[in-house]
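Worked example (supplementary).
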Amino acid sequence: MTIVRDLRDGEEFVGFYLIKESEAKQTNTTPPKDFMNLVLSDASGHVAAKLWDAAPTDKESFQPLTLVKVQGVAQIYREKLQVKIVRIRKTTDADGVRLSDYVRSAPVAPDVLLAGIHRVIESLTDRDIRAVVEYCVNKVGDKLLSAPAAKSHHHAYYAGLLYHISRMLELGDFVCKQRPFLNADLLKAGIILHDIAKPVEMVSELGIVSDYSNQGKLIGHISQASLWIAEAAIKLGLEPESERIMALQHLVLSHHNLGEWGSPVQPQLAEAVALHHIDSLDAKLQMVEDAFGTTADHDEWTAPIRGLENKAFLRLPF
Amino acid sequence: MTIVRDLRDGEEFVGFYLIKESEAKQTNTTPPKDFMNLVLSDASGHVAAKLWDAAPTDKESFQPLTLVKVQGVAQIYREKLQVKIVRIRKTTDADGVRLSDYVRSAPVAPDVLLAGIHRVIESLTDRDIRAVVEYCVNKVGDKLLSAPAAKSHHHAYYAGLLYHISRMLELGDFVCKQRPFLNADLLKAGIILHDIAKPVEMVSELGIVSDYSNQGKLIGHISQASLWIAEAAIKLGLEPESERIMALQHLVLSHHNLGEWGSPVQPQLAEAVALHHIDSLDAKLQMVEDAFGTTADHDEWTAPIRGLENKAFLRLPF
Amino acid sequence: MTIVRDLRDGEEFVGFYLIKESEAKQTNTTPPKDFMNLVLSDASGHVAAKLWDAAPTDKESFQPLTLVKVQGVAQIYREKLQVKIVRIRKTTDADGVRLSDYVRSAPVAPDVLLAGIHRVIESLTDRDIRAVVEYCVNKVGDKLLSAPAAKSHHHAYYAGLLYHISRMLELGDFVCKQRPFLNADLLKAGIILHDIAKPVEMVSELGIVSDYSNQGKLIGHISQASLWIAEAAIKLGLEPESERIMALQHLVLSHHNLGEWGSPVQPQLAEAVALHHIDSLDAKLQMVEDAFGTTADHDEWTAPIRGLENKAFLRLPF
Amino acid sequence: MTIVRDLRDGEEFVGFYLIKESEAKQTNTTPPKDFMNLVLSDASGHVAAKLWDAAPTDKESFQPLTLVKVQGVAQIYREKLQVKIVRIRKTTDADGVRLSDYVRSAPVAPDVLLAGIHRVIESLTDRDIRAVVEYCVNKVGDKLLSAPAAKSHHHAYYAGLLYHISRMLELGDFVCKQRPFLNADLLKAGIILHDIAKPVEMVSELGIVSDYSNQGKLIGHISQASLWIAEAAIKLGLEPESERIMALQHLVLSHHNLGEWGSPVQPQLAEAVALHHIDSLDAKLQMVEDAFGTTADHDEWTAPIRGLENKAFLRLPF
Amino acid sequence: MTIVRDLRDGEEFVGFYLIKESEAKQTNTTPPKDFMNLVLSDASGHVAAKLWDAAPTDKESFQPLTLVKVQGVAQIYREKLQVKIVRIRKTTDADGVRLSDYVRSAPVAPDVLLAGIHRVIESLTDRDIRAVVEYCVNKVGDKLLSAPAAKSHHHAYYAGLLYHISRMLELGDFVCKQRPFLNADLLKAGIILHDIAKPVEMVSELGIVSDYSNQGKLIGHISQASLWIAEAAIKLGLEPESERIMALQHLVLSHHNLGEWGSPVQPQLAEAVALHHIDSLDAKLQMVEDAFGTTADHDEWTAPIRGLENKAFLRLPF
Amino acid sequence: MTIVRDLRDGEEFVGFYLIKESEAKQTNTTPPKDFMNLVLSDASGHVAAKLWDAAPTDKESFQPLTLVKVQGVAQIYREKLQVKIVRIRKTTDADGVRLSDYVRSAPVAPDVLLAGIHRVIESLTDRDIRAVVEYCVNKVGDKLLSAPAAKSHHHAYYAGLLYHISRMLELGDFVCKQRPFLNADLLKAGIILHDIAKPVEMVSELGIVSDYSNQGKLIGHISQASLWIAEAAIKLGLEPESERIMALQHLVLSHHNLGEWGSPVQPQLAEAVALHHIDSLDAKLQMVEDAFGTTADHDEWTAPIRGLENKAFLRLPF
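After joint prediction of all chains, the assembly is encoded as:
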């Protein structure tokens, strides 16, 4: 059993993998023949694969998010590793494999992350702020457990959003201690709420985003989160244009900092400045960390990272 | 009695005017003497004025939005007309002058404009859309009668917002007839709602904006209007994330077209494209029309207009 | 006989179509075989097609703008409909089909549109302006009947330019009535002249642009139109630097509003502001209307529209 | 007799100067007193001056472009030299001073510069190009002798335009020799014509620009020059859309390189690239040379130069 | 004895202050009289002051950075507090006041901050990196104790640079613990070196910057620091183009992230991303904290902060 | 023997060529077959070539920079000439062909160019500047002989950098004579040093760049050259922060003019302005000259040139 990350040129292998992408194609021969381009993945990464001479039913069988058993050969093709599939079938109960084991996900379990976030919520001393945060977190419900933080930009995997929020809360806690003039309740609430509408902005399963939703396109997660805060206020009997509610909405609305990055207003509360920069620091460093994590050990440079001026990153040689 | 527009160099005059701006200053002499810089206005325009040797109580008496009787002399100073005040006093009931007669305002009375808008609302055939529009218009209440459409950008006078909406509705009606594929209910609702939160975004009296409100700075009129639409839906028992509600919010959120102009999402409904361009056409042409209206007849060029690439405009000589 | 718009997956069909694009290719087999990628079109839309095992003469026979009779099978390939050609031949007189019936074109006949424009020209009261407009319209001659308004941006089909001008004249007429301070003669002349050099800027046949002309690349339609106005003035015995001539040139030169959009000067006449915004409103709404028109009924979203921030548009579900 | 450049702190002096700017003002005392702010200049530079206790007629007497005899005292005021005027009067014939001696101008006489340019025109071997250049140069007439190349950007003095053209012709000649693939006739014609409409774009006297003309604002010198080339072609019986005419127009239209710098088309001929860069090189170096020329010898740094990223320049200390 | 922060309208007071700015002016009266505009400061803030009827020697006596004893009256003038000086003299030894007590400075003593930084240097485990950091810190010498981190942007006071580095080191330490894949030695070295050339980029005394140095203008602190790292390598016998030296230079060169912000290369090491964002987070939050610190308690909003999109900040009302 | 430039459609030919690029691919047939995409070049240009049915050893044999003898057929394929290889082998000593004859290179031999540059260096009168320039030129060593000036932007061929420097020196000499206020030593030194670190920024052989080096990515040639100047100063016993050294570094650092183009400081010496514009003029004109040189004689337009606003260029028809 070989995990994706360990595949080497020329290796013949058998293993279980998750189909991440799937495309039916035809050769240019006459008559053309059907074949399939798949992307096989497990928790350690992903690799392109060719299924030649595909049967008519294969297109239906080997859809994205299907768990399969594969016998294949790994080969370097145009400087990248590629799998030539010899045999492939969907897994059965008898195989005893669980989907969740083959999904790329945050390094901490979602329920652990969520429990940590709930502990932070309970620690908030401002009753109104705490109630609004609880309302919004509950509104998202189970989607919060699996949602990625973005389609591909950063934390783009199972429970990526929870992980992003959790690490930001750690940073936020440190910054509040370093700078006591900040309102810790407000900043922590802002951290929890800033991306809370992402799970409805994107259509995802197992942390893999297939598209943006209509709601995501027409409203966007930033405005949607501010609308939920208003809804929470109304449902909780709070004044929707009170100072606390407006402050929470301001943090969410301004957290992308600039209009061209999607924020209709710019930060005008100290906590909004802190939120934007903590978000940025966590997202950007995670991009680099994840890029190294999916780059083969013998590669000096990662692939270019779109969110970092499209620059590749160098593994330190010392 | 001379109106501001008719004042000429060297003219001695008496008249009633509204103080638009007021500033207490001191001369650089030793000892320094108190004087005041005022801006006197009436419905025809405004003019700078000097009150030399001001008494200690004058600072309190001659605040902005005060109606005064002035005896003065108009003089060209640095190529602009300026008034040297000889005598000044606040008006009394005996003077029989009404504040509203001295305020710059839209060319149509606010109640007439509002009645027209209500007729459009009543004509909307979609019950849910109509109800939401009514809710939001009622929420603004009386402020809608006097509010300008902007601080200085365009329609910056008494009932300017109502006038802007009314002209846009005329244009919108024409465009809907020219292009029947557009949903007329949605476009008209969008026209009425797009700036509906402006009266709470800015602090104004008699159409003169003194500042942006905290709500205006932290939330902005675009997001605020979308929040009111959500509130309307909840209070009216409509699903706040239903298609109609999202469509209305989308029109409001996208009507500035680009992120750097304040819109968190870009137009993705045909009616949103129509709304943005009708808004733009009406605002820009009004800027030019108003600039000509406040430029003396003998001047070829208006002052530069900030909202039009800071260009001055030429009066056609034919 | 099936029109392009009605083709369905698996359908075997026979029909007449216009070849819009044509490309000779070879398979990667050894020895390679010739085949052709065609784009078949009619007035309802266009579809990709494969001609396998092409004969040596086919490359010459099946050039763009050729009318052909096709027997084929429609198939979904990579989520898009594609035609596999079984038999194909050029049409003959015996088929009794007319090229013009298979060309995508404006919804109103070009001669009707042109007649309407001539009526507007005759209605202009300013003799000099009318003469210059007539001169320029005559200069373009018959090319005006078929020219599209752009290569692909908007109104990119047979008589698209005439249609664009006509709709703009309707809007312009409304705006002049709404705002009597505008000079209607000048605005209408500007609408007719603003894109009048487009037919020489691009090389097109039947509304399909194959390239920009050298003149289009070196001078551009904006400057070219202003040069024609100068030529008209000289030939008509008018002073080429008189106020009317400069005003007309200004409208043409400034109608793209900004330097980065191709205008060497920015609007400084009220009518120039009106012209730019009427142009923009008509072009953008037409883009959306045309996108819906060529999107299959069962698709919620159009393809992304480059001229509208590359956004796709949603068909209203209500 | 002290020239402006040699004035020192505390010096009492008498001399002839040209009034470059003039402004009537009043003190803040009660009653206010009239005084005048003047800018006195000669060929060596300019200096601010105060005329206290101005007589009512002084405002009329001491207008810009008046030659005056001044007795005054130079004093450092807020780190800049300023003149306190003790006596001032307009010059009379008896003074025997000529205006032209007091005007800042190019370092070579205009008739010498113009003669040089005419020699280049005569050397052009292409008959049509030569005829068009001659036509346009003659069209500008005497204005060409005195016109500056810009309002303040570069070569902003008497005969500045002729000087700019002349130096560019030297550079152009060198570049054509270094790179024989360039068409020397076309490049030299482009150099002579590129700014040829500047004298009608701006209203100037003695090289001092008071404003842009209406023609300059509505059409701009770039489009105006292209219009003159068309006029020349028509009047000379050449085809206005022939290759040579279009090439000349292209050079003029594209010489600002980018749309946001005022060029409606971008360079697409080798000579257009050469023209833009030669123009740029000459203008920018002249800005620095002139800045050093008007900076006192003891100053290390010039004032910031707007056209060079608003940077000040350092006099090399070695 | 009243500190600046506690001055109230109408208060007569006596106290010691530091002159921060000083300007000799004249009244517009005839004859004009000398007066001085001063800015008086102490550790709690600063206030404008007028010295009427200044004696000829006052201009010399009351230069910036002079400690003075002042008797005066505080008055609201145009909505700001201003001091009218009744008596003023330079302090003498007998007054027993120390300059350092009147200077605005970081909240921690410079020697304490520097000692902390040296402890971090000593903790670096990479010998070469540690040696280079020590070399550069020693090169700056005593200037490091007083230097501000910027002219006015952020940390613009005595020891501001040391304070900025120290807080960044705390944050850096936290981030390295949160993300062990980062090379802590390199990040900490980068934090210490990133602004190390600021003390030679600007001319400052007591944390008040009077100008940029020639070196600062021609080279800039970013390139200068990279040059010092090269110098350190050469002097320490290390290879100047070795991996460690290049990595350190890369961190310094890229820490402004983008070319338009002054960085010739963009971050391509994980530690460079961390450095940029830690720098940003610390600088921006300090701007807000300092703005609140110098805003009177009764003001809701701070003045606009240039480095934060020129937005003012709201003091949370809860 | 046919050179690349003379190949025509249908021609059967034999000749020697240099492999510029090489890619091993497989057909989509089952089983897939190996073939190779090569780019064959000689001093006159380059052409794509197909090697069908490649043997397993071919991938190793036909690597980039290999000299081969080819028998083939030239054919138009998709409007471009392509070679179908019939026979191919590596050259042997017996063939008597020299690699250097098949490499695209500057039109003047590198040793001639370098000798010219050394003559300029010897002519510099400032001893320190001359010594620093010599040090840096020697530091690059033999790499300078072959290095291109850029990867593909301009002068992208063997000895391209030497040629660029040489032509710039000619221009610089002319400009210094035209404007004697410029320091000729400094400008010429700046010209020689401005791109001197390019040979270590890129990995190239025979003028063909395969990649940027780590040093090039992390430091960049601009900063690297300034570091070498510092190193030269230290090694030569000059003060590294003296005026001459800083001036040289300033010229190098500022020669891209703007931050977004890679310069950390903007020009603030006259010679820096001259350097930037001479660099620009030479690079841009060379781009056009080279584009014409590699465009077939019968083509009116070159391919688009990325460095010139991505515009294609027209060959003058007269």
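Two points are worth noting when inspecting this output. Residues 4-102 of chain F form a domain with the OB fold (Dihydrolipoamide Acetyltransferase, E2P) fold (CATH 2.40.50.140). Chain F has two domains: 4-102, 110-291.
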